[in-house]
Amino acid sequence: MIKKLITLCCFTSLAMAGVAPENILTQNCLNSYLNTYKSQKDHKAFVYAREADTGKDRCGWGYGHATVQEARKGAMKQCTGFHLNAECIIIDVDGKYLVKDGDFSPISQPDNTPLTKVEKEKLIKEAKSLIRGNCLPFFKDYLKDKGHKVFGYSLDTDGKYACGKTYKNATLVAAQKGAIQGCKDNKNKRGKEKPKSPCKLYAKGNKILLTEKDFGIDKLLKSDRVLSDEAFNLALKKAKTMIKDGPCLFQMKYYLRGSEHQAYFLGQDKDGKQVCGRSEGELSINEALSKALKACNAKIREENLEAKCTLIAKDFDIVGEASFFEREEKTEPKKHSVKNKSIKKKLDSAKKVESKAITALFDTVKKKSTEKSKTTKIDMNKPLPLHQTLKITAETLNKDLPTMLDEELRLDKVDATENKMYFDYTLVNFTPATMSGEKLKSLMYEDIKTQVCADKDSIMLLKKGMLVDYVYRGKEKKTITTFAFDAKVCGVLTNVEQIKKNILNLIEKK
Predict the structure, then answer these.
(1) Is the whole-model pTM more than 0.90?
(2) What CA–CA distances, in Å, run from 247 to 20, 181, 270, 279, 286?
(3) What domains can be seen in the chain, in order of their start residue?
């Protein structure tokens, strides 16, 4: 009999543990129950309701009533005033806890213990192997969040991705649903960059749940390997035996400063005109090869060349050979003076260096920070205002300035106003007397214009009203000339002009 009594007591204790207040009430209602209601005088009652799917809940209580019936009625009136898809249940009367198994689904309280620096660094290092683009800083912010939190992520074998997160949720179930929905919303806004894979629960609380295999990726992941200066120079020297001065040589320089996995293709027609395509930081070498070849072929179609793309480099190995390409150099016409030949030769390597500054500008724009949303669903695709984008860009570029872009040209500084960027250059071997503004324009303007007006990101900012000035000075700091660009120069309308045009078209139709 004593043994049965002990067994019964143990069973009752275990059953009550599963329905204890901390396993039933969310944080706010638990605090109200323990810290406010419990200390009130009889007659009193506490009522609670929680939606199983969303975790939304409400609680109410009454105290100091003349009878138990009045206390129950008063508490129930508070709860039923809220429109929830859940029944209000009396869980306590006069300090007696009444919850039974099955009344509510059990929950857990969130662990808000702050991560140590070592723990945080370990999680970020693990996340870097899969989380890409602007989703990585988004995940870093997630680690600072409190309450029930979940991070949703989608990644396919092409490297396309999307993400979403929730935090401060009433229950873990609600957090999971919110994170998946946030990821789906972000995924649907990515257009052509939309990943094929479904959104999955990547992290719950401060624990990462998935690896690359959960996304169907069983290939080698990218590495953060960086070439030493010596290795960089040796690789670039070999590449120069195939690649002529110009945009493709700059693309090779960027390539050699990139991260694995990466690939570089080069195409050249019978007249020696070259195009190229590169891809870096991909999930696998096959993905890098596919993307780089696709980019190179697109350039061939764009330039209408009769040429074939050839693999020049994969990861950090230069695999191409000079014999792959015929290096036909055109001689200068005899009518040019020796002086003009010398000037042109010096400027050949500087002719398209603006591509470096332009690329840096829009790489910075793509990596823009987003303000933390106050809602539980956060959209990563909201753009920054134009003036803030330009300010961030100028501040970022100026950290590494001044810098020599090649042996002739130095980028000294970048300034930004509300809607304008200023790039301040110095031609270190020339003065206004040895290089006139007209001469410089004939040598460089069209190439710079093509670079600015062909880049989809620059067009996007020009449509928003951005103006760009390239100021060139001689070695004595005297201005040689300024190249100015706006939407009109590139043959596009600003967003404001387009709206006006649409309104006029509607009026004319009426």
Answers:
(1) no
(2) 69, 42, 18, 15, 25
(3) 2-97 (no CATH), 117-215 (no CATH), 229-324 (no CATH), 348-497 (3.30.300.250)
